Amino acid sequence: MNRVLAARLIDLVVVLFGVSIIVFLMIRLIPGDAVAIMLGANTEITPERMAELKSRVGLDRPVIEQYLLWAGAALRGDFGTSLWTGRPVATEIMTHLWPTLELTMLSLVLGAVLAVPVGCLMAQTRGGGADVAMRIGAIAGLTIPSFWLGIVLILLLATVAPSFASLGYVPFLEDPIGNLQRMMLPAFALALPILANLSRLVRSAMLDALGQDYIRTARAKGLNERRVVYKHALRNALIPFLTSVGIMTGYLLGGAIVVEQVFAIPGLGRLILGAIAERNYPVIQATILVVTAVFVLVNFLVDFLYMIVDPRVRA
């Protein structure tokens, strides 16, 4: 087991290294000059002023040297300073990180927790009216974009309950009720595709598990059907489910950036979109690297849970 975990950690480091190189190079292909944009906002652009500012922020050095300096500092936890605000990038990210993580985790928990009983019910009622209805709902959930669903939910809520606060963000510790009230709609809009996808996966895995010999043996012994389904069959059905949850986390992180704009949540979405518009290289690099790190760490935890659920993977 330790050997497998060590291999996963090595994969994690390699992925982060590759992403850092790709992001560092690709953002420099974005049209527009960060220095020209910064100068154009306040003063007349001249070659002398551009050269002076490039030298001050280190953009006059070769790209390889820029990357090595940035990567070396990032390994020490120093992501540099914002080209616009002059504040440490780590501070900027921490300011916007929690709303995105909260939205992502709420959506993941909501989608994953509901997917298990829904998928099991679909498998138990295979071919019945309930199964058909839930499968149609799952297909609809997969085809509806989260941002469009968010807009529709806001319009419906404004009509039904105009006093209900659905936009903005309030820290949980500051106002728990207000926080959950504002996060309810974006979490549901983001969780619906996950719920639809995972419930169909659980249904398929449960149908396969319920047809195995050990399930027929358990039923022949007179075990309660609920125990057969949720203790014996579900344990094996959770193996592909856990793998998909890790992959869905990346989808949620990407979707949260868009949904945050719809519900005016000051998360990483607002930070990274503003940084792209400003050509704020240090903020873009660090934010994408942090999002990737969260994604690969979640997948590492999923691999760990995978080994707990299925001991055969430990070998």
From TrEMBL:
<keyword id="KW-0812">Transmembrane</keyword>
<dbReference type="GO" id="GO:0005886">
    <property type="term" value="C:plasma membrane"/>
</dbReference>
<feature type="transmembrane region" description="Helical">
    <location>
        <begin position="103"/>
        <end position="124"/>
    </location>
</feature>
<feature type="transmembrane region" description="Helical">
    <location>
        <begin position="237"/>
        <end position="263"/>
    </location>
</feature>
<feature type="transmembrane region" description="Helical">
    <location>
        <begin position="180"/>
        <end position="198"/>
    </location>
</feature>
<comment type="similarity">
    <text>Belongs to the binding-protein-dependent transport system permease family.</text>
</comment>
<dbReference type="GO" id="GO:0071916">
    <property type="term" value="F:dipeptide transmembrane transporter activity"/>
</dbReference>
<keyword id="KW-1133">Transmembrane helix</keyword>
<feature type="transmembrane region" description="Helical">
    <location>
        <begin position="12"/>
        <end position="30"/>
    </location>
</feature>
<feature type="transmembrane region" description="Helical">
    <location>
        <begin position="283"/>
        <end position="309"/>
    </location>
</feature>
<dbReference type="InterPro" id="IPR035906">
    <property type="entry name" value="MetI-like_sf"/>
</dbReference>
<keyword id="KW-1003">Cell membrane</keyword>
<feature type="transmembrane region" description="Helical">
    <location>
        <begin position="136"/>
        <end position="160"/>
    </location>
</feature>
<protein>
    <submittedName>
        <fullName>ABC transporter permease</fullName>
    </submittedName>
</protein>
<keyword id="KW-0472">Membrane</keyword>
<dbReference type="Pfam" id="PF19300">
    <property type="entry name" value="BPD_transp_1_N"/>
</dbReference>
<dbReference type="Pfam" id="PF00528">
    <property type="entry name" value="BPD_transp_1"/>
</dbReference>
<dbReference type="InterPro" id="IPR045621">
    <property type="entry name" value="BPD_transp_1_N"/>
</dbReference>
<dbReference type="InterPro" id="IPR000515">
    <property type="entry name" value="MetI-like"/>
</dbReference>
<feature type="domain" description="ABC transmembrane type-1">
    <location>
        <begin position="97"/>
        <end position="302"/>
    </location>
</feature>
<keyword id="KW-0813">Transport</keyword>
